[in-house]
Design brief:
453 residues; mainly beta; seven-stranded antiparallel β-sheet; 28 strands
């Protein structure tokens, strides 16, 4: 017995020493980042000390922030080794840009950068080139309600909508405005024909024939919904500071209604969902389905409200209703169709992982990024659940996310930058991590309660 006790003692001692050794070998790491810009684009010194730099540990969602010095050097010390995401933003108003450059301008300057899945297991240093981006249109996404509501007491994903805002000081016309759901890989699996961030490398798609960058200069559509026009281009005026709502189904989701299957859709808790009966437009996919598959039965929840104008479905795949991914695995864009930009004629390409193209192969419309008026990356609020971004960081260097995740009734809403003569000007720095906040419950009312500061 004494021999056994001695043996157990030494085994325990060896185990503790082994654990201590493992602890001793896990050393904190230091991160050094050197911010820079393309010197050919700027003839003045950028005040890098104004940059906001944030890294997030993808294991525990812990956030760390730091400031750069005047030369653009940023240091993070004593970090736990692991995988991190990075986001950098620097904003200069027009007055500052004019003073620094010696040239009068009315344009603010937005410098951004982001990266994901950075492996900080040892001390790390890197140069970070900030990307200059300027909003290209006066239409912006104000509110995106993609999360849906409770799966048993709410409306699940039947009550989704997007709100599009006139952020200019002029009357704009919504005719031929195209709301696009951007397509991309929605998991972090490794494999062939992928970019370093594990998103599709569209340059590897069969038949790809572009002279510029297939990944940076284009996005690929999962769906395109266009507001109709009577040919005048001025059928749907939207005043400065006003918005339009495109509903998945433009009915009052707080009350029972009859589905296409003749079943009555009950609602247990009306406070969890919204009334979309006064939406400006709705998506009704059945006519499009008849084009691609004649004779197909109506999808139960794809209800048509005849008093609300239907958008035209240009393209849609993988859906029988306009369902936005409640886990935050979609991204969204806006552009205007015209005689020079016909979304029906965009070239289409299969997923890069497709090795043989048949008549059954889905091919995704390729949209030039230089026609996009606004684009928003949506993601999970938890870093560990984020999937590869679908938008290049020149379009959106950040991402927006609801705080409580899917089926929470929450929406993401663009922040108010300032109010001029009663008109709200919404913030648009091309970095949705900064530009968007969260409403605890989606609000299609267009009233003051639907904005956030």
């Amino acid at each position: 017995m004494k021999y056994r006790l001695i043996t157990l003692f030494f085994l325990a001692l060896a185990f503790l020493q082994s654990c201590k050794k493992d602890i001793d070998t896990i050393q904190p790491v230091s991160i050094s980042l050197q911010l820079e810009v393309d010197q050919t684009l700027f003839n003045y010194k950028i005040p890098f000390e104004k940059a906001n730099v944030e890294i997030i540990n993808k294991t525990n969602n812990e956030k760390y922030t730091a400031k750069a010095n005047a030369d653009g050097l940023v240091n993070f010390n004593s970090l736990s080794p692991g995988t991190y995401s990075l986001n950098v933003s620097l904003e200069l108003d027009a007055e500052e840009v004019s003073s620094l450059s010696g040239q009068v301008t009315s344009q603010d300057l937005h410098l951004n950068y982001s990266a994901d899945n950075l492996n900080f297991t040892t001390n790390y240093s890197s140069n970070i080139r900030l990307i200059s981006s300027t909003p290209v249109g006066n239409w912006v996404f104000k509110q995106i309600y993609y999360a849906g509501s409770n799966t048993s007491k709410g409306a699940v994903t039947r009550d989704l909508f997007v709100e599009i805002y006139n952020n200019s000081d002029q009357v704009l016309y919504a005719d031929s405005l195209v709301f696009t759901i951007v397509y991309g890989k929605t998991n972090n699996n490794t494999g062939e024909f992928l970019l370093p961030n594990l998103q599709f490398d569209w340059s590897k798609s069969l038949g790809m024939n572009v002279s510029n960058n297939a990944n940076e200069d284009y996005v690929y559509a999962k769906a395109m919904f266009m507001i109709p026009s009577d040919g005048s281009g001025k059928k749907y005026p939207v005043q400065p500071g006003n918005s339009i709502i495109i509903a998945e189904t433009a009915i009052d989701h707080t009350k029972p209604y009859t589905l296409n299957s003749d079943k009555v859709q009950e609602i247990e808790d009306p406070t969890l969902t919204v009334d979309l009966s006064k939406a400006d437009f709705e998506v009704y996919l059945y006519p499009y389905e008849q084009k691609i598959q004649p004779g197909r039965t109506k999808f139960a929840s794809d209800i048509d409200n005849p008093s609300v104008m239907d958008v035209e479905t240009i393209f849609a795949t993988g859906m029988r209703d306009m369902v936005l991914n409640p886990q935050g695995k979609d991204s969204y864009a806006l552009f205007k169709a015209s005689s020079a930009v016909d979304p029906n004629n965009f070239p289409k390409y299969p997923e890069p992982t497709t090795k043989t193209v048949t008549t059954e192969t889905t091919r995704y419309p390729q949209i030039p990024t230089d026609i996009l008026m606004d684009a928003v990356e949506i993601s999970s609020v938890l870093e560990k659940d984020k999937t590869p971004r679908r938008l290049h960081i020149s379009l959106d260097a950040g991402s927006a996310a609801t705080l409580s995740g899917p089926y929470s009734s929450q929406s993401v809403v663009r922040r108010t930058k300032q109010t001029v003569n009663g008109r709200r000007i919404l913030q648009d720095t091309n970095n949705s991590s900064k530009d968007f906040g969260v409403l605890t419950k989606a609000d299609p009312s267009k009233t003051a309660s639907s904005f956030i500061d």
